[in-house]
Amino acid sequence: MTLLAALFAGLFVYLSLGALVGVTPRFLDRTPSGERDKRDRAQDWLQQAGADVTPFQFFAVSIGISLFVAVIMQAITDVLPLTFVAAGLALWLPRSFYSRRRNKITQQRIAAWPDALRDLIAHLKSSMSVHSALTELGRSGPPALRPYFNRYAGLAATLDQRTALEVVREELADPVSDRVLEIILVAFEQGSAVVIDILADLAEATSGDIALHEEIQTAQLEVRLESRSAAVLPFLVLIMMIATSNDYASFYRSSAGWLVIAIGGLLCMGGLFAINRLGRIPTEQRILAAGGAS
User: Fold this and answer.
1) Cys-Cys crosslink for 149: which of 137, 174, 195, 227, Cβ 3.0 to 4.6 Å?
2) 223 pLDDT band (50/70/90 cuts)?
3) pTM of the predicted model over 0.85
4) Residues of 28-52 as b/e, b for ≥16 C-beta within 10 angstroms?
5) How far apart are CA 81 and CA 59, in angstroms?
């Protein structure tokens, strides 16, 4: 019995550690194809956000942060509904952080394209081949795009150039990169002279789009900061009052207090959702992505 218990304990530890590092034994991987596609999309999202973790690890860490904040909040206030609100916000924070980080990385890449296109045009006009010009971007192009063209150069050494560029396009995964790389794919087939003028026009149009996007973001910055402050500050004040006054603490532990916190939380979350929804900058869909729009 002792040996059997030890074997089960070892199996449990093995499976737990495997789950945490994102490795599932093949005989336990019963994920339907649809769920596997969702998991792959989640993995792509994390990679684009610069998070070198699996979706399970991300979810596990988010749950851990939420539980930690819940324990701290319950110890400070001993008010269960306020603990639920804090735990919910903490659960949302990692997703919000990496979503903003992903958007920032994407915008940095898009902002680098006009300079990259001008470099590419200069290389093509100097009688470089398309492949050599792309490889040169990996060495001397804009820093935000260098890793992707270094990746292209490495893949092109083992795959054909078109397939290597398709892989890089799916890693970049934004509509601006789709348009640029689609034109470069045409250059592989028709020759660079055909696309130089198109690339020049695209560089000019992309610069204009970037300037407009930055202007809209700057105009919205103050409103976004004020809306988030208006949503968070009432709860911070409430925590201070509950922590320093037994009368406030007693009220918010009652059913009436639960109702006040629930209504306040719903109003704050609803207001934030409405402001973010109304202030969302329309994003262009990837109509040139492999397999259709995404």
Assistant:
1) 137
2) confident
3) no
4) eeeeeeeeeeeeeeebebbebbebe
5) 23
Q: What is the DSSP string of the chain?
A: -HHHHHHHHHHHHHHHHHHHTT---GGG----HHHHHHHHHHHHHHHHTT--S-HHHHHHHHHHHHHHHHHHHHHHH--HHHHHHHHHHHHHHHHHHHHHHHHHHHHHHHHHHHHHHHHHHHHHHTT--HHHHHHHHHHHS-TTTHHHHHHHHHHHTTS-HHHHHHHHHHHH-SHHHHHHHHHHHHHHHH-GGGTHHHHHHHHHHHHHHHHHHHHHHHHHHHHHHHHHHHHHHHHHHHHHHHHH-HHHHHHHHSHHHHHHHHHHHHHHHHHHHHHHHHTPPP----TTSTTS--
pLDDT value for 284: 62
pLDDT tens figures, 265-287? 888 878 878 877 776 766 666 66
Long-range contacts of range 288-291, CB-CB < 8 Å, 24 or more positions apart?
A: 288/175, 288/178, 288/179, 288/182, 289/169, 289/170, 289/173, 289/178, 290/166, 290/169, 290/170
b/e sequence 237-270, b meaning 16+ C-beta within 10 Å: ebbeebeeeeebbeebbeeebbeebeebbeebee
C-beta of residue 87 within 8 angstroms of C-beta of residue 145: no
pLDDT band at 47 (very low <50, low <70, confident <90, very high): confident
> Whose structure tokens read 């050494």?
157
Residue with tokens 């970037």: 210
